[in-house]
Structure formats: structure tokens, C-alpha cells
Design goal:
This protein has about 250 residues and is of the alpha/beta class. It is built from 11 helices and 9 strands. A 6-stranded mixed sheet has the order 3-4-2-5-1-6, sandwiched between helices. The N and C termini lie close together (about 10 Å).
Length: about 250
Amino acid sequence: MKTYIFKLQKGGTGATSIGLTVAVELAKAGHKTLFIDADPQGNATTWLNFNAIKYELSDILQGNAKPSDAILSTSQENLFVIPTAGIDGELSKVKDVVTNDEPFIMADICDGLQSDYEYCLIDLSPSYGNFERSCYLASDEILPVLLLDDFSIDGLKIFSNHLQETKKKWRIGNDKMQFHNIVLNKMNKTKSVSKLVLKNFESKYTQENLFVIPQDPNFEKAQLLRAFIQDVDGTKAETLQEIKRLAGTL
């Protein structure tokens, strides 16, 4: 099982939308995929509109449930979720306490699911504490999701340096916490700033490593409809093409 995190230490970039949509694409391609909602706000869980949640990620962390107890199936074949309840959820209260004592607990959880799934995608909050670090330590690759603004390149450099420092401190090998691909989200071709920033990225990275997702109102529409963007009429062809291309690299 390969484990991926779509995130940057900045909110509002659309990392949850991109991560869950890529998970759907992997499942549609026939890959058994697990999506872990590790954001205390539980936005992905809300989007998926489960009728009832008996156990959530916080229960697994506290030893009150096994991962298999908490895993829920979705309307998409091959896609499964470990949820986090945004309202009255416990994750925000326990996440840093548990992972302070057990920094590799998320890696242990993922290792226990290795034989059951081909892919695991983890959604995180933009903060960085003990728990977020535990998730990073469990990952094979981290894919930053950025907006095309003046600070995106500096933000990416800071993020990259932070990951390297974490790998060095915790003696993580080159086969874990890799950093190859970059997602540039909400591209607006009418904005000169977006085009200039994109050109700057293209001068530093190859096209194979850059995935440019256009500004697409169907992401918000899909969330309101509690549907996947692949199933919402009017989704931009470029959006679906880039999501499919990104999923194909994982």
C-alpha cells in the first residue's frame, strides 16, 4: 500500500478537494483505496454524507476501536474511508496528546492495513503539530497543493525545508516522505499574476511534475450536492484530465 498526503502548511488551497477527488479516480480505475480524514474539521467526512458514524479516527488513536471497526464504504466502489466527525468529534482533543507519546502511531495504523488496500490518502489540517508530523512520518509521498499567488514559491520552499528537517531529525529514509510532484490549484487564466507565477514554476519544474487544476466551481457544487466532482454535470474537461493524470502517477 502506498500512502500519500495532499497538503501544505496553509489553509484554503483546496487540498481536501484534490485529495478526495484523486482517491475517487483511483477507485474508479479499480484500485482499492482508503481515504483517512485526519482533519479535525472533518470536511471530507461531511462531504461524503455518511448517515451514521460509530467509530472515528480518534477512537483508533485512543485504542477504543480497531481500524477495521471504523472503516466505512462509500457510494464509489473500491473507495473506503476512516472518518472524522467535525461536529462533536474528538480528534482535536486527543491527536497531539496521543502522538506525543506514540509518534509513529499513524505509521503503525497504515502498516496494519498494507495487505488490504493498494492506496491510502490522508487529509490533514494546515497546522503542524505532533499529530500532523505522525501522519507525515507514515507517508510515502507528500504532494503540496498550492494556489498561484505571490507567496506560493516561498511557501513551497519553506514547506520543503521543513520536511527535510523532519526527515533528518527522525532518520527517515529516502523511500519515505518523498517530494516530487506539485499541484497548482484554482488556476485562473484571466489573471496575469497567476500566469506569471505558473511560468516561474514551469522554469523550475518539469511538466511531468506539475499538475495545474483550473478554477472550477464544480468543486464547491459537488460538496453542496454531497457528490463526487466526476459525477457532476458541467465539470471542466481540463479538471478531469489533470486529476486523472495525477492519479496515474501514484
